[in-house]
Model the fold of this input.
Amino acid sequence: MLDLIYPIKRKFPICDTLKCSVCHLLPLETLQYVEMKMKHDTIRVFTPDIPAELTFVERKQVNNKLVNAIRTPGKQIVVYGENGSGKTTLLTNKLNQLYEGYISTSCTGETTVEHILRDGFDQLGKFYISQVERKKSISIGGEIKNNYALIANSIKIQRKRETNVTEVPIIPPDLTVQLLAKFFGESKYAWVLEDFHKVRKSEKKRISDLLKVFANEAQNAPSTKVIIIGAVESAGEIAAFSNDMNRRIYQIKVDLMTNEEISEIILRGSELLNLTFEDNVKAAIVMASGFRPSRCHQLCLNICQDLEINETVEQTVKISMSDFEKSIGTYHEAYGYFITDGYKYE
Ligand SMILES: Nc1ncnc2c1ncn2[C@@H]1O[C@H](COP(=O)(O)OP(=O)(O)O)[C@@H](O)[C@H]1O
Ligand SMILES: [Mg+2]
Done:
């Protein structure tokens, strides 16, 4: 039943030609085989600062929980955990697989609900406006489309008057949270609010009220969903603000990675670039990463860059301990600290 509402959709992250038609039909194993056979840029394989796609490792501990929450209409989600544990990466990969699309709004200490509303509304333009312009065959409900256009117009006028980008934007009275939820419902996009922990306490309460409205709207449009990403304390805060909502909020903790998961990143990356890491090198990278995937990506990237491997190589290259030692020196110079207590850099 749920499959009918959210058919499993897998986007092929690399090649737009394949993405449009073939990849939806190919089974996962075939896709992985195709990926392995392609040439890849090293900076797209090892990605310390952006969400990994090519080397994405499934997080077994939380995968089912997250997938179920994403696929259950009306469930709002809080994903929390330490900085760098892999929250954004996990979520973006799962939403790419399971959802029509998503919109991501980043929060800071200055963010108010008005900023969030405005940002969510503006970004929905990629659905409403681009569809109209490209005259896509997917029809958008006429009334809701007109409503969007009218509000977009009054915001456009308002924007000309705003001088300071940090000031709290004035939201046209028509743009209620309820209406925004309807706009999201029509688009079938999920809404991700990043860095919730940075927001002021008074605004956190208002954001949890927004969650309720979206949960209610899911009765009309099942895909209406807000996903909050935050630091460890975020889960407790949302729960405290919305007692009556607890049944409708899934809280999902993303722990730092296990050593097996870190090894999997090295393995996937080495297959994509046609490299072989000697066993002791793999073990050293795992240890030096200290359960943090971004460090693993950074170290592997440094090794490749030091060896001038900028894309998949024709002939398999072996990565030895001396390559690793050299790259960890680069890392040490760049970041100025011993990367873990466990690994001593001499
Ligand atoms: N499941 C994963 N598979 C492969 N690499 C990952 C995974 N999760 C995170 N990473 C890598 O670790 C880095 C930090 O992850 P990120 O999702 O930004 O963490 P968080 O959002 O929790 O701060 C990313 O740049 C990404 O390259
Ligand atoms: Mg993040």
Observations:
- Residues 28-57+257-334 form one domain.
- Residues 142-161 form the longest helix (20 residues).
- DSSP finds 16 helices and seven strands in the chain.
